Amino acid sequence: MARDGRGVTAQSEDFAAWYNELVVKAGLVDRGPAKGTMVIRPYGYRLWERLQAELDRRIKDTGHENAYFPLLIPESHLHREAEHVEGFSPELAVVTHAGGKELEEPLVVRPTSETIIGEMMAKWITSHRDLPLLLNQWANVVRWELRPRMFLRTTEFLWQEGHTAHADEADARRETMLALGIYQEVARDLAAIPVVAGEKTPGERFAGAVSTFTIEGMMRDGRALQAGTSHYLGVNFAKAFGIRYTGETGREEFCHTTSWGMTTRMIGAIAMTHGDDQGLVFPPRLAPYQVVVVPITRGGDTAVEEAAGDLARRLRAAGVRTHVDDRPQLSPGFKYHEWELRGVPVRLELGPRDLAAETAMLAKRLGDEGKQAVPLDSLPEVMPGILTEFQAFLLARATEFRDSHTVEAATWPDFADAVSTGWARALHCGTRACEEDIKSLTAAGPRCVPLDGEAAHGPCVRCGASSAYGKQVLFGRAY
Amino acid sequence: MARDGRGVTAQSEDFAAWYNELVVKAGLVDRGPAKGTMVIRPYGYRLWERLQAELDRRIKDTGHENAYFPLLIPESHLHREAEHVEGFSPELAVVTHAGGKELEEPLVVRPTSETIIGEMMAKWITSHRDLPLLLNQWANVVRWELRPRMFLRTTEFLWQEGHTAHADEADARRETMLALGIYQEVARDLAAIPVVAGEKTPGERFAGAVSTFTIEGMMRDGRALQAGTSHYLGVNFAKAFGIRYTGETGREEFCHTTSWGMTTRMIGAIAMTHGDDQGLVFPPRLAPYQVVVVPITRGGDTAVEEAAGDLARRLRAAGVRTHVDDRPQLSPGFKYHEWELRGVPVRLELGPRDLAAETAMLAKRLGDEGKQAVPLDSLPEVMPGILTEFQAFLLARATEFRDSHTVEAATWPDFADAVSTGWARALHCGTRACEEDIKSLTAAGPRCVPLDGEAAHGPCVRCGASSAYGKQVLFGRAY
């Protein structure tokens, strides 16, 4: 493998190796001792905390309340919803012994919490006045992974899971789309990922859902990554757990429920949407550090060190997350490379000559402008604008990349060609057999039926039968 | 059992029943389906989020970084520190099957994370420049409980666990006391619990620690509750996991490590420190709602409803967490009782006559002042001061209660009498046999050797042998 000086395989050479090496090398994550587990290191966890704070605020602003439900679920609970248990059984971790004894009934480590929350909802809801019940939980979940990949597929991951109960289908479907809209906004406006929102085809639905909606991002290798899902569960879980309410007329009805989740997978999505051969590129709105200040001293140049500290304080006062890299044992060049690898949007270099000129050298993580000398005094004022521009630049670049790698495919050769490097929008018959046929030939599957797609009918791009869904389906290879 | 109109046993009659019923009735918590597990409901979770935000800020301000380590730990890891595994083995929940197969090595659901973090520290630390390594994790842990009690002893609970590595004992001991100081401050200044900080006697140490420090609060039944612990682990875990660094002179040394934790148990501590026959009493700095506004209308009195909403907005703008209880189907009297039960510090009643007089009736959750008419316009300005006073009142009341239930006991009868209703400070020989003797006779054990105790020597209050520790020991029955 060709590697640059940083010891990470070039993205252009081997995307998978680049990703696997980069997330570890950049200090985002490390492998845990148990198979498929990950340790989220402080630099990665800061990114998660930023995302969490932003997402949590939006969830609360739309009337949801946080709660916490148990990790361990009696195995029999999962069996109450037939499709649900069928979908999750192969991925379950099971506690059979506790307190030094074999348990009478094994406990499942939650892979998701519909069942245990359903059980509690049935207890809490009696009247139409208790509805809607809008809950959210921040938690860890465990799903056994045979081919783990840091952030993308790990045995344990962190997420939020919204769970809501409603009086009727219309209200529950409104909620499903509300959550999807929040995810789309968070992905686009914070992570700078121009996701496509759409509905999953029946074969790709969440186990137990009536409808599953998704946001799909395009990674820089052209593959799709599902970055958040929102499910309308109908009355499936309400029937399985007895979630009923008495309506205004006194009649007892089943609740319509929803669930929706976004996970630490987003960290991987950000790495694969914006990163390049030099390393990570973090969108300023989520970056742990938006600016790194590197003082250029030969040890003990207190004037430069003090000026760097002072600059950082003034940037922080202006709301800019700033880190000073004052490690004495490392050269400025080493630090530049390291912070490029770690994706900090803006670097400020400050040496004795800069200080004399009352400027700092500003280098952006991306863009062809090279370094610029900027007056020290102006930095706190201009930096927020520079970061906003950088954020917009990332979104525009990712949108351009996505659009230039998405093809409307009317013929099978066009389709096969499109999904070898990106996505295809095509008409499809909607049968599982044809989906499987396409997958075996191209490794691409239906990602979603995009919400913004226009009405379209005609022959299936693969088998020629009449198209389903009333519009085109988005196909791609996926993580 | 005598119950008041709210369906909760009186505190004065049966403290345990009062607590068990109240935390459920007040909507803080509910029982989970698996034995000993709890569901933290939104009202309880809001309190936890308040505590979490305050504690997290203090942890970060003192240089610690958050990270996340795996839930599942290979069983062999726990065996590497002999005392540690001996202490935790009886409480472990064990995953033996995953992904549809029996695992080659069982995985333990973390009861605490010293072992897995020790393993990672050994990987990350090589040089003295990597020290101190100051980490914190917010997580769930599982310890199998035979006699579960909501918040106090549950099979799963939430906590933060700090884990740090240092170059020498002095630095690690400084860290241990720093964490203890943060806990003492959070308990006192936020939860209004005047805890006693001290060192655990050897028999009460954390499994694997060299020294364990604790903060102990007195509940209103005179029992002690351990509300946070901080451990100096010496080089025990460093030796077990190989956490070594190369010093400035080039010599390889073992790190000295610490760990410290505070948990959702604090919610129970708050309930049992301040609650009374009427229900919970929340300290304003942690209360989910500091003020509840109850509009008194006979449905459709829009002037009153609007004024209530307007008042709430102005209180919120003044930084006061305010809730308007505008449920149409419930009487004002029902609401007053409910919010007393739920511990809201201040209630504002607003009816048509109040509105005409441009006042609201203000009722505090505790105190003998009765209701007062307060000009609506002045409320946003005066409320922060009222809440500050209420917070100080709770701390003063709890301090007075603690001090009036703590006795310096020089004789065995005085000692036995003291620990039947509260705490005793007494000289003790320090032997395990004598500790056990005291426990079997009085159900009281050594809570800690208070840090603020004065030097004292003499005969053991129980056996007459020479006292240990150089000062008095605090004894009490405990949760």
Would you write up a description of this structure?
Two copies of one chain form a homodimer. By secondary structure, the first copy, chain A, is an alpha+beta fold. Chain A folds into three domains: 15-274, BirA Bifunctional Protein, domain 2 (2-Layer Sandwich); 291-382, Rossmann fold (3-Layer(aba) Sandwich), CATH 3.40.50; 406-476, 2-Layer Sandwich (Translation Initiation Factor IF3), CATH 3.30.110.30. The first copy, chain A, has helices at residues 15-25, 42-61, 75-78, 82-88, 114-124, 169-190, 236-241, 265-274, 302-317, 332-341, 352-356, 379-404, 412-421, 432-442; strands spanning 29-31, 38-40, 65-66, 72-74, 93-98, 101-109, 133-142, 156-166, 196-199, 211-218, 224-232, 244-246, 252-254, 256-263, 291-295, 322-324, 346-350, 359-364, 372-375, 406-408, 423-426, 445-450, 473-476. The two termini of chain A are 23 Å apart. The model of chain A is unreliable at 1-5 (pLDDT under 50). At the A-B interface, strand 2, helix 2, strand 3, strand 4 and strand 5 of A face strand 2, helix 2, strand 3, strand 4 and strand 5 of B.
